[in-house]
C-alpha cells in the first residue's frame, strides 16, 4: 500500500508541475503570444510589457515544464510552443476562467462597449461566407504572425498600416476583423477605425488558437 501511495503522489506531482508553471499572469500572456508563432525574447518582453531578464526567467519556467522549446540564432534566443496542445490548454483554461469568475466576465463586457461590434457569424458559417465573397476576413496582427498561421481566406493588413491601406478593402461587404483572441484589443481598434470610415465592420473574438481549438483548419 505504501508503494502505491508513493507512486500516486509522484504521478500527481508531475501533473502539478504544469499547474505550477502556469501560475503567473505573465507566463499565461507569453503562452498566448507564442500561440501566434515563434518569437524572440526581446519581442516577447516588449509585447508583454516586462524586462528581457524577467521574460527569460518566465520562459525558463515554461521550458522546465516542457511547454515551450527554443533555438539560438546568433545572439538571439527564439521561443515557440512545444506543440498545439499547449495553445489548446491556454484556450481551455481561459474559457474555464470566463465561466467561473464574474469579475472576468464583467471586464470582458466592459471592453465590449458596443455589443453590435461582435461578428454575428463565426466558425464554418464565417468561412462559407468568406469563400463566397460575402464578407472579408481581416487579420490585423503583425505580418509574421499571419505568415505562421491564419484563418482561411483572411487578408493581412497589420493594425499600424490599416489607415494607409484602407483603400484595399471593399466598401460593399462586411469586414470581420480578428487578432490574437478575446483578450487582444487590436481587432477592436481596427473596427473603430473602419467604422469611422463608413465600413460595416465587426470583430471576431476568436484568434488562431481558438479557431484551431474548435477543430477548424488554419491556413499556413
Plain-language structure description:
The protein is of the alpha/beta class and 220 residues long. 52% of the residues lie in helices and 13% in strands. It contains eleven helices and seven strands. It has a four-stranded parallel beta sheet with strand order 5-4-6-7. Strands 1-3-2 form a three-stranded antiparallel beta sheet. Helix 8 links the parallel strand 4 and strand 5 (155-156). Helix 3 (41-48) crosses helix 4 (52-64). The longest helix is centred in the first third of the chain and has 20 residues, at 2-21.
Brief account:
The chain has 220 residues and is α/β, with parallel strands linked by helices. The protein contains eleven helices and seven strands.
Amino acid at each position: 500500500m505504501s508503494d502505491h501511495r508513493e507512486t500516486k503522489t509522484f504521478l500527481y506531482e508531475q501533473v502539478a508541475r504544469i499547474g505550477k508553471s502556469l501560475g503567473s499572469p505573465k507566463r499565461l500572456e507569453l503562452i498566448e503570444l507564442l500561440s501566434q508563432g515563434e518569437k524572440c525574447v526581446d519581442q516577447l518582453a516588449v509585447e508583454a510589457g516586462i524586462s528581457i531578464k524577467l521574460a527569460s526567467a518566465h520562459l525558463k519556467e515554461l521550458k522546465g515544464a516542457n511547454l515551450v522549446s527554443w533555438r539560438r540564432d546568433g545572439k538571439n534566443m527564439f521561443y515557440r510552443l512545444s506543440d498545439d496542445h499547449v495553445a489548446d490548454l491556454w484556450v481551455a483554461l481561459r474559457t474555464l476562467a470566463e465561466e467561473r469568475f464574474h469579475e472576468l466576465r464583467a471586464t470582458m463586457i466592459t471592453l465590449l462597449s458596443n455589443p453590435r461590434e461582435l461578428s454575428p457569424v463565426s466558425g464554418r458559417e464565417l468561412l462559407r461566407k468568406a469563400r463566397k465573397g460575402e464578407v472579408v476576413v481581416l487579420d490585423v496582427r503583425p505580418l509574421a504572425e499571419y505568415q505562421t498561421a491564419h484563418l482561411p481566406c483572411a487578408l493581412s493588413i497589420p493594425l499600424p498600416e490599416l489607415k494607409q491601406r484602407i483603400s484595399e478593402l471593399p466598401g460593399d461587404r462586411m469586414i470581420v476583423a480578428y487578432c490574437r483572441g478575446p483578450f487582444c484589443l487590436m481587432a477592436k481598434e481596427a473596427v473603430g477605425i473602419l467604422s469611422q470610415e463608413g465600413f460595416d465592420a465587426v470583430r471576431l473574438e476568436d484568434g488562431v488558437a481558438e479557431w484551431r481549438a474548435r477543430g477548424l483548419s488554419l491556413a499556413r
